[in-house]
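Hey, sorry to bother you again with one of my protein questions. I've been puzzling over a protein and I'd love to understand its fold better. Take your time with it, there's no hurry, and the full record follows here:
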Amino acid sequence: MTQHCLQRPTGNSSRGCPSVPGSRSTPAFPSAPPRRESAGIGKTTLIQKATEALKSSGVPIDGFYTEEVREGGRRIGFDVVTLSGRRGTLSRLGSDSSTARREYRVGQYIVDLVSFEHLVLPVLRNVDLGSDTGKKVYVIDEIGKMELFSRSFIQAVRQTLTGSGTTILGTIPIPKGKPLGLVEEIRSRRDVMVFNRLLTQVSHPY
């Protein structure tokens, strides 16, 4: 399995993922196979460790990450957790016989779009595109199938990516099956560089 770290060119040829605090206006997107990694490895774990390091260094940081939810040792879904400590449902296991009138489903999981947008959109819209936010980091974990059911989220991510002086640390899945429009848009940006990293022992819920 591979993992990619994407970032804007900074004039050097360093390998791997350069330090975020020292870069300017740099979107960085580690990527791995679709949800979700085993405990202790993978892109979300990498995001959490990077977030802890940035906080301990005094770097202003905001955003969100996704976290698996388990019950009795069984994965039952995923939550969204903001860096300010708020938590909400992203998805839960659904019945094959579900007859919901408006249902967003990825594999065996049903996405709670209302809960997701309620938590995430205010975070992204807090990015002040007109001010000098060069040292503020925004975490977006992740930009995947579940999140991309939200057109408002897609728009907010695009606006954040175009913000001057905004550093973004986010995650995207590697190409698999039908391309995801926004993911490929990010991957193909001319101001983005791709870095590969080996990732092992990844589990796939779908």
Summary: The first strand starts at residue 2 and ends at 7. The chain is about 20% helix and 30% strand. Residues 140 and 183 are 12 Å apart (CA to CA).
